[in-house]
Amino acid sequence: MQIRLGPxxxxxxxxxxxxxxxxxxxxxxxxxxxxxxxxxxxxGDGVVTCPHAEHRRQRRLVQPAFRPSRVAEHTRxxxxxxxxxxxxxxxxxxxxxxxxxxxxxxxxxxxxxxSDSLDAATTAEVRHCLEEFVRGLFLRTVVSVDAxxxxxxxxxxxxxxxxxxxHTIIDGxxxxxxxxxxxxxxxxxxxTLLEAARGDGDGGPAVSEQEIHDQLITLLLTGVETTALxxxxxxxxxxxxxEAEERLHSEIDTVLAGRPRLAxxxxxxxAQTRAxxxxxxxxxPPGWLFTRVTTRDTTLAGHRLAKGSTVLYSPYLLHHDPASxxxxxxxxxxxxxxxxxxxSQSALLPFAAGTRKCLGDTFAMTEAIxxxxxxxxxxxxxxxxxxxxPQRPVVTxxxxxxxxxxxxxxxxxxxxxxxxxxxxxxxxxxLRAADAALRATxxxxxxxxxxxxx
Length: 454
Fold this sequence. Notes:
Strand content: 5-15%
Low-confidence stretches: 414-422, 429-434, 436-454
Largest sheet: 5 strands, mixed
Radius of gyration: 22 Å
Helix content: 40-55%
Oligomer: single chain
Number of domains: 1
CATH architecture: Orthogonal Bundle
Distance between the termini: 37 Å
CATH class: Mainly Alpha
């Protein structure tokens, strides 16, 4: 399907098989278009926005911080941050769930990237700047006339100030770390990048100062907002679907078994919670629209695409196709238990696929599962009276000011029948097997060269 983006024409790929074909041909369909042109103004040529020729080297550099073994080490941090959020809420209080999730994910990812280098005030400023940047980015993506954004309007000034402050904060963190050469080394991504810049790595090309900056700001942006939007969407959807919420609460109570807090080793047993997050990513994917640009003349589904053509695909569109997901507008976590149909597996693309699949997918899923389980174990969140407004997509999709009322939840202290617990465990095994099969399919059909797990 062909559409117009201002004066530009673009092709929209609407079938999951064609999207997979496009995503595995990264040399032909490279990251580009107005979306990535605007992102590069903030993120430079980091691992998300860099061209195909640079991607493998950059991914090998930053991937170790997001390996499953490292994610497991960070699970306690995720659980602790979720507990802090819960302690700040009070019964009957109205809370901005969106803001709370943004603040929490900012704290988590900043610890992973640069340990304790950001104080509370700076972390809050980073969150505010990211929110301002995202608000202005979508308009700059769909409107290709740069002169409009050079006007000294309040919105343009706020956008430019947010971008400048983010760059200044990251530069300050890097400079401060360089000054603190004495003392114990930090176990974070900044330290890994500085070692690579010094040539302390495996003999590969040294990392430039600009690349250190670009990688940090890239991962900061991508690691904060999308997970926060997913979490806010999940709580909003659960409040409108009491049956799904009740099944979630039952699972959490079963796993806790009277204990006050979840432990990292509990997360593999949370099959229903994982299904809630997966269904949220299907129903309301934060990354809802992506662009590619052809690097040569090619053909897709019988249509000739000239070099330089803009090609779009929308996870939201794919996730709401009834051919792949019956009753697509309904929130049905049970569709992922015990295992989804093959067509549903291939059509679910919240993290893309192939060699440029999101390198933080395991990190994001683990964080979302941990936070939903902790919050739902303590609180039942309720919408305010009146209709729930529709989500307004910008560069990402999700509720940006979701205000809800906190109701304390009394945990079930009696044991759930053993057969229900066993059923949940069997469902988790089946879901993990389906996930493994899907990853194997990605490796065979989406051009995976093993970089994802390098």
